[in-house]
Amino acid sequence: MIKVSVHESKSFDPAVMSRLLEDDPLPTRDEDDVPKGPFLTLDGRVHRPTSDFLRSYAGARAESGTARRYASDLRGWLDFLCNVRGYHPHEDYRDPVFLASEQDFAAYWRRRQYGPDEHRLSSEGWKNARKAIKRFYEHTQRAYFHPPPFEIRSFETRDGYRGTQIAGYEPRRRRTGSAGKPLTPGWAEQLLMGALRVDLNGAQNDYAGADRDQALISLCLGTGVRRHNLAYVTTYEVPSRSELPFTTIQVADLITKNDAGGEALTFTHRLPVVHGYMDGRRVEDVARRPYRPAGPLHIVEADSRGFHYVDPGSSDPSKVRSRSWPETDAAMRLRLVNPDGTTPILFVNTLTAEPLTYSGMQHVVAGAARFVRERVNPDFPAGFRLHDLRHTYAVHLAVAIYRGVLADAVRHGANPNDAWVVDHIAQAVEFVTYSLGHSSEDSTKLYVQTVHRFLGIPIEQFLGQP
């Protein structure tokens, strides 16, 4: 283990220096010759990049407390790179902070926000750490011409303040003990009506994004995937139609919190509208303009398992490479271009044909919910969020497993067995844990603690049957 430590600079004392040197020290010209600000050491050796930044920051500003806090936050980042990611500066003399990639930073974010209690920071603590790391890499960009291992975006507030921030990697929401707002099957259907902008009289408002919004909400209700997965899922990964009540969708490791990928059970009755969007309105939207991402990777061939592609920017642009979907991260997915010049990302902006953003997805759900409250059912839950669709999926899946629907489907499948037979709700919750990709049952229990309230609803409604 490498010991990473924070030290405070001491005032220059000529008498102390004389005693150590056994001679008179060279005279200092002014205060600029005196070290300022805290600094970091690795096994007792001064870590130059972070210490240069801290000295520069402390020298330019009067608030020494901020510099000390930055030092503490950078100590955590450096300790993670050395002792968790295995970058050893004393073996090959390549500095860990320059070796760090975005995958390293993503892993650090997960550790600090979703890891064990002893490593987890509060939401405010993570904001401070993210700011310190961002400022440090802005310094390395100026001083060493080294680019940051993440995207830094500029922003401007309503009152005119301009600044920069790391794109994404937001602090986790504070757990309040709420089980969210899972919808009954009836309310779920009303939300889909809201997505289509269809009122109680059957009249549909003219809205270009209706098919996409209905497909997005339906896929989330059917699979329970998180927003991050929803943003980057491709058309190739959407499950095929099935006569059985359930199928599965592959959830990619590299675009999932805590790398908790795998397969998620999927309600098949939620898939037809997704395929309808893929074959209909989406085709029209992506045909409007070619997709031109930075550093494009051109797909040669693809299926539900993976794809073959060429990289025009590589040293060998004709070389065909292969990748499976589970091992393809978000950044690479955004660079992919289909043979017809379109993006393989499933949900796109109806105007630009670009992949739909996180905020755009939240607007989809908020707009549908607002339409329901105003034009369909005023009692629809206020403040309903995109993540509540995942809550809804968890509860519906728990009910279906408890009622034996999944066990019956498996019995009639290719490999019949009774592995999915349960005799109490707690067992059903355990199975839901696997499908949601949770490492802890506590997270799932937060979603499904209201399952008992849904047990009086006919099971046919959970399966889309009249």
Features:
466 residues; three-stranded antiparallel beta sheet; 43% helix; single chain; 2 domains; hpI Integrase, Chain A; alpha+beta; globular
Please describe what this structure looks like:
The protein folds into two domains: 4-166, no CATH class; 185-462, Intergrase catalytic core (hpI Integrase, Chain A). Helices cover 43% and strands 11% of the residues. It has 19 helices and eleven strands. The longest helix is centred in the first third of the chain and has 22 residues, at 123-144.
* Straight-line distance between termini: 62 Å
Strand proportion:
5-15%
Anisotropy-based shape:
globular
CATH topology of the largest domain: hpI Integrase, Chain A
Brief characterization of the structure:
By secondary structure, this protein is an alpha+beta fold.
List the helices and strands and how they pair.
Layout: E1 4-7, H1 14-21, E2 39-42, E3 45-46, H2 48-60, H3 64-83, H4 89-92, H5 96-99, H6 102-114, H7 123-144, E4 152-156, E5 162-166, H8 185-196, H9 210-223, H10 227-232, E6 246-251, E7 262-267, H11 272-279, H12 281-286, E8 297-302, E9 306-310, E10 321-324, H13 330-335, E11 336-337, H14 358-375, H15 387-402, H16 405-411, H17 425-436, H18 441-448, H19 459-462
Parallel strand pairs: 8-11
Antiparallel strand pairs: 1-2, 2-3, 4-5, 6-7, 8-9, 9-10
